[in-house]
Sequence to fold (675 residues):
Amino acid sequence: MQHRESLEGASNAGGVAAWVAHRAKPYTPPWITAAATGVAGSLAWVPAHGSTGYAVGLTLGSVALTGATAWAGKSTTPQRRLHSAVTVAAGSAWFTGVALAGWNGLTFGTFWIGGAVLALSWNVRQVMRRNPEAVQTATDADGSLLEKVKLAGAAIRRTEVEPNRLTAEISLPAGELTNDDVTRSLGNIASALDVAPTAVRYLPDPDSARRGSLVVVPRDMLSEVVEWEMPTQVGGSIADPLVIGRYDDGSPLQLWLPGDPAAGRNSTHLLVCGMSGSGKGDGALNVLTEIMSRRDVIVWLSDPKSFQDFGPLRPGLDWAVEGGAATETMVTALQAVIPARTRWLGAHGYRQWTPAAAQQQTDPEHSCQKGRACGCAGMPFLVGWFEEAANTLRFMGEDAFTGTAQEARSAGIALVISLQRPSHDQISTSTRASMPSVLTFGLDPRDEGMALPAPVLDAGARPGAWGNRRPGYCYLVTPGVDEQRHSAPGRTWRFTGNAARVMEQLAEWTRRNGATVDPVTAKAATAAVGNAYTHRRDDDEDGQDSVYESDRGDEYEQPQEPETTGRVDAEDAHLDPQTELPPVPNTLAAITLGNPTGPDLTAEEARAAMDAIVAEFEQDGVMVIGPKDVMKHAERFGRGRQWVSGEFRRLIEDGRLVPTAKAGRYRITPAPALV
Fold:
């Protein structure tokens, strides 16, 4: 470029003079400084000549200035420090001499000769600082590095330097190396650069087998623990990003659950995994608190650990159960609401759930009535959260969530499955394939393949390198996030004891201001599991009635008739509620729930007892049962497994029991649904 500039410009005297002035300008500061020193010395001679005090002061000032220059140059190279100190010492000594003795042969000669030599020495330093061979030296260094890591012949085309991040575009020799070779060399590159193994990542170019970007993050910005304070968007929409932490370059760690047609982003389910002590619990709290702070979402949550971590948030959940049969009932209800929600969305012109679906339907474009707005109540987004899902999968079978996960996204439902080990013996490959998003913390290295996709592991992601030694460190793979971020480590906020009070306030806000269940979802859940859903909050601490008004019917599918003094079935309208009940039949009066003390029951009495047992399960909210659950009751009536199996067949024929996907488990059809 300098050679090119020297050939441009006019060739006349003015052009040559301008070129000379332009080229000489960078080298004039040392000469200007020397001239200024001469003028200053001449002015100082007037008050200082013949004065002993001035002589002592100027001498001490020269020594002090030289010492200060040497001290200030400690952070520079030894050559620059020495050069600066010599220049200041010579200049201050000459200034002192001319101020005391004035201009004479000695001061005049040392000024011109010494000043010119010092100024030229700085000019030479300027020239040598711009070394054309330096570019070649750097190139050779890169080549030496790549050769050391067995990538000889590779070339670095372009580099981009950001704060704590270096991105270098690599081109491999054609026919000799591929992107897979770079992936296998990431450990060697980290060793050569002396950085952490997770600090080096390679992002192959999807359109080339020998080009890609090497990303190096030299300093771990995640080492500082940041405590959670509060959700990021209280009152926002679930369609807004959920911010749960930060990446290693300081940018926000965020994900979305609903899809966005405008952005081309699909809705997703989320798998949260990590070994004990890896920070998975804090990560789950980050996600759940973000979800509960949004205005258009409800949460169904199962926690076999008796809400050890989620206790402060429980009042804000629409439905919360512990493990075992209660979770099985929740899964049954979730399976039942999917087709009902899908029908509603389709009837109102939604190809997928959007925030507009959660509002009252006043837009004729989204109406179940042709040509006019229908005014139907909105349908909030639904999150089904299954904490410690390994317990549920062992209880229900490894494919318990497979069908639900495959169908739920189109119904405005997102599943969150949390477990410690995403191994094949914990979760089926079919269910894992239905979970597009994963938030993985430290793992056993053997589980990495089930937690993260192969391209992310090839790019340098290594959750097995952390184990439980770096709590909160994680990788996030999810739609809507640039694929380059999938292999970038992040860290979630830390939850401490101080967060409990804020979580309690969040739960109260959600209960008062958050979304309530829509009529369609409530009716489908009630039809599937009865009291288990309608009485889901009967044990709330405040003792308030838990049955939402929207639980009482579906305004879209079947308009409600106004109620009078209570619920009365049509066939019971003629009955007087004040009339005394008739005496209990002998067949039922003989039924006891303790150890029988009377004679053995007849066949009719035993069948009545079986019906009573099933009704008792229903009343307790246990809507999925098996023969083994009934055996302990049947034995009290002197009946065995064969009789129980026969009664199960009868109840299935009557429609009272419906087989579930798991062999030996049956769903109780709520009694009102049989009428």
Notes: Residues 133-141, 540-566, 591-599 have pLDDT under 50 and may be disordered.
